[in-house]
Specification:
The complex is a heterodimer of chains A (111) and B (227).
Chain A lengths: L24 H22 L5 H23 L7 H24 L6
Chain B lengths: L1 H5 L14 H26 L10 H4 L2 H26 L3 H33 L7 H32 L8 H27 L13 H11 L5
Helix pairs in contact in B: 2-6, 2-7, 4-5, 4-7, 5-6, 6-7
The chains are: A mainly alpha (111), B mainly alpha (227).
């Protein structure tokens, strides 16, 4: 390992991410409004009477959209180094695998 | 390598990746936290509709109240990004307003949770030892609440550091790391709100009509190709 292989991180206050790659204040406000609207839609859908399977799918999609918006724009994963995404999404994938494995183990799948 | 690292200012020490190790560590921690909450969520789903005595989710869950607390937590995430934006611009006054606002909304969310736990216990007799629903519900939401509490303490400490001058524009990475943690507790709640409240509110005693949601849920999950 060579010393010159080491890189100095950008100073946080002057890094490219601080200089305009992130959303603007207006962008953050729009994202907050979208998140609020999705939550209101979830609340409204809760009182609708329709196919239970569709009901579940709608909630999972809406919460997935909220989840993605927050990690991409508020946690800045969309703009940051790919290594951060790999660390986080790796943990998330493992958690999802554990969830499906446990559900399968307890014979809840395809019951 | 270590020699070079120790001869630089801690804020700008060189790394193999060119990324700040503190931020990298926080992302690794959040990855591990996914597993932490993943196990509790899995446990909740495994025990879903398995309680043989009440109260059941349909008896106790109040979706309108939880929708409001969810909205409060989402708006605290907005305040958190404004906190980071302010400190990066060197706007100390803005930073203090936004960081206190974030901590305040976090506290309001905790207030909702205390109210909910109290209602469940006093009016419905639901405790962690009552049934499987109580155990898995209180463990999952309780650990989430503990994380929010830790976040509120962290935010208030950042406010104090800024007041005494030990947190300025050049230290914005510390605020960013706290922000990552705060947004993480928000996204965990997004999942809990959907699985426990919106989908769980119709769960009824075993054998009752509403419990066919369990079969429908199993049907949905069974369609995942690799399972």
């Amino acid at each position: 390992m060579q010393d010159d292989a080491l890189k100095t991180p950008d100073s946080p206050a002057h890094s490219p991410e601080a200089e305009g790659h992130h959303p603007t204040v207006r962008g953050y406000i729009i994202i907050a409004i979208i998140l609020g609207i999705i939550t209101l839609i979830e609340f409204g859908v809760f009182y609708l009477e329709f196919n239970r399977l569709l009901f579940i799918l709608v909630f999972i999609v809406l919460s997935g959209v909220k989840f993605a918006i927050v990690i991409m724009y508020y946690m800045h994963l969309k703009f940051d180094d790919i290594l951060f995404s790999r660390l986080f999404l790796g943990g998330l994938a493992l958690a999802a695998a554990a969830l499906f494995a446990l559900l399968a183990l307890f014979q809840l799948l395809g019951a | 390598m270590a020699q070079v690292a120790t001869t630089h200012h801690p804020e700008e020490h060189p790394t193999n990746t060119g990324l700040d190790n503190r931020k990298l560590a926080m992302w690794a921690f959040l990855g591990s936290e996914c597993l932490f909450f993943g196990t509790f969520i899995s446990t909740y789903l495994v025990y879903r509709n398995q309680s043989i005595v009440g109260p059941y989710p349909a008896d106790v869950i109040d979706v309108p109240v939880t929708t409001v607390s969810t909205f409060v937590l989402l708006m605290s995430s907005f305040m958190m990004v404004m906190t980071l934006y302010s400190i990066r611009k060197g706007d100390n006054r803005g930073f203090r307003v936004w960081v206190l606002g974030t901590a305040l909304l976090g506290s309001v969310f905790l207030g909702f949770q205390v109210f909910e736990f109290r209602e469940f216990y006093i009016h419905y007799g639901l405790s962690p030892t009552t049934n499987l629903f109580g155990t898995s519900f209180f463990i999952l939401t309780g650990f989430h609440g503990a994380h929010v509490t830790g976040g509120v303490i962290w935010l208030v400490s950042l406010f104090g550091q800024n007041l005494n001058g030990s947190l300025t524009q050049k230290d914005s990475l510390r605020v960013e790391i706290a922000g990552l943690y705060w947004h993480f507790v928000d996204i965990v709640w997004i999942i809990i709100f959907t699985l426990v409240y919106l989908l769980g509110a119709n769960d009824a005693p075993p054998g009752a009509e509403a419990s066919d949601g369990h079969a429908m849920f199993s049907q949905l999950v069974s369609q995942v190709p690799f399972v």
